[in-house]
Design brief:
Shape: elongated
Distance between the termini: 38 Å
Number of domains: 2
Radius of gyration: 28 Å
CATH superfamily of the largest domain: Clp, N-terminal domain
CATH class of the largest domain: Mainly Alpha
Low-confidence stretches: 1-52, 385-389
CATH topology of the largest domain: Double Clp-N motif
Number of strands: 16
Strand order of the largest sheet: 13-14-15-12-16
Strand content: 15-25%
Number of helices: 13
């Protein structure tokens, strides 16, 4: 966590929503180690000459471990606590894991302390965002690799990089667990690992209070308010999980009250959740053939207490369409859903090939009837990237 005044640009700097805030400094490591990288490359860019070092990746076992932990915990942002946890899950012969084990920092103990209230169902694994703390840790790991090894980053360099940031989430976790950073460094040294002679940077031991949660799209409003209300020496930060976000701060701060100030109770419509169309009973297969087969929707299960009523629910992109059985069914000829698509021409061709009449209105919209006579509009505004693939935006 970080004091806002220590961010680049000062207290007025914008904070990117959804990223854990952490100090990014080298601490007690001699700055000269950055100049001792074994291989460097000079490049000419016009009148500007730059010197670029080789990019050494983190150990693959750690990168994979962090990714799988993020999926397991339902997280989209990898903050430094996941790297610490990944180190505890390395093989038993790893000096980094042995040093952590000796200090009582095991995978089970650590996992119980990093689970957040917002950890949800396992994530899809489609992608992972790294917090600013990652880049600070990565820079320190590269520095340790250059100064203490041959330039290749090892798990022990990653552990040293985490320990050498006294304000990081990992350092705070270790303190709360009663684990001494100095002892972990001594265990590494006893295991034959080269460690810096410089003392560890001072750690301010901060007791954090409970996280306060809110909707992800409210992050900037909350952050702007906390910047104004919290003293510059206060440690605080935020992160997000899925469509929710949370802030944390020192336990002495009434964070819940401050967030309530920033977000007064709202009475508002947030967005359209779904559109419902009627259909006759017993024709779910016709609905699937049209909406899933021709328009590319994906059917989603109806809740158990509604499934027995018949009908189908579909989703595509941000569109959610429900078809419910109406015993006195009449098709909707005027009221209709309008679907924003990409590849309008392709949709028209596909529908005509299936024998569905298509009514064109200019170059940007078409109208069709579903199997039950309900009117459906497909439109592709002129500023939309056109052409295949054909799908609902």
């Amino acid at each position: 966590m970080v004091r806002p005044t220590e961010l680049p640009g000062g207290a007025g700097a914008q904070i990117d929503a959804g990223l854990t805030i952490s100090l990014m400094r080298l601490g007690g490591v001699p700055q000269s180690i950055y100049r001792r990288h074994p291989r460097k490359l000079e490049r000419d860019h016009g009148d500007v000459r730059t010197v670029m070092g080789d990019d050494h990746p983190l150990p693959a076992a750690i990168e994979r471990g962090v990714f799988h932990l993020a999926v397991e915990l339902g997280r989209q942002v990898a903050s430094d606590d996941l790297f610490l946890l990944a180190l505890t899950r390395l093989g038993p012969d790893s000096p980094a894991r042995q040093a952590l084990d000796a200090a009582g920092v095991t995978a089970g103990v650590l996992l119980a302390n990093i689970r957040a209230g917002g950890d949800g169902v396992p994530a899809s694994g489609d992608g992972l965002t790294y917090s600013p703390a990652y880049y600070g840790m990565r820079g320190r790991a590269e520095a340790f690799a250059a100064a203490l090894g041959d330039g290749a980053i090892t798990a022990e360099h990653v552990l040293l990089a985490l320990l050498w940031d006294g304000d990081s989430h990992s350092s705070q976790l270790l303190w709360r667990l009663g684990a001494s950073r100095e002892r972990i460094v001594d265990e590494l040294r006893a295991g034959g690992v080269s460690v810096p002679d410089a003392p560890l940077p001072r750690q301010r031991e901060v007791e954090f209070g409970e996280d306060v949660w809110f909707d992800r799209d409210q992050v900037q409003t909350v952050i702007d308010h906390l910047r104004l209300r919290l003293p510059p020496t206060t440690y605080w930060g935020f992160n997000y999980e899925g469509d929710r976000a949370y802030v944390s701060s020192e336990a002495s701060v009434d964070l819940e009250a401050l967030v309530a100030e920033a977000l007064p109770p709202a009475v508002e419509v947030r967005r359209l959740d779904h559109v419902q169309l009627a259909m006759p009973a017993g024709r779910e297969d016709d609905a699937r053939a049209f909406y899933a087969g021709l328009l590319g929707f994906t059917e989603v299960p109806k809740p158990e207490h509604l499934a027995r009523r018949g009908g189908c629910w579909f989703t595509a992109g941000e569109a959610h369409l429900h078809l419910g059985v109406d015993s006195d069914f009449r098709p909707a000829r005027k009221a209709h859903p309008a679907l924003l698509v990409r590849g309008l021409t392709g949709f028209a061709e596909r529908l005509r090939a299936a024998g569905v009449p298509v009514t064109e209105q200019g170059d940007e919209q078409i109208y069709v009837d579903d199997p039950f006579g309900n009117r459906v509009e497909l439109l592709e505004p002129g500023d939309t990237l056109r052409g295949p693939p054909y799908y609902i935006v």
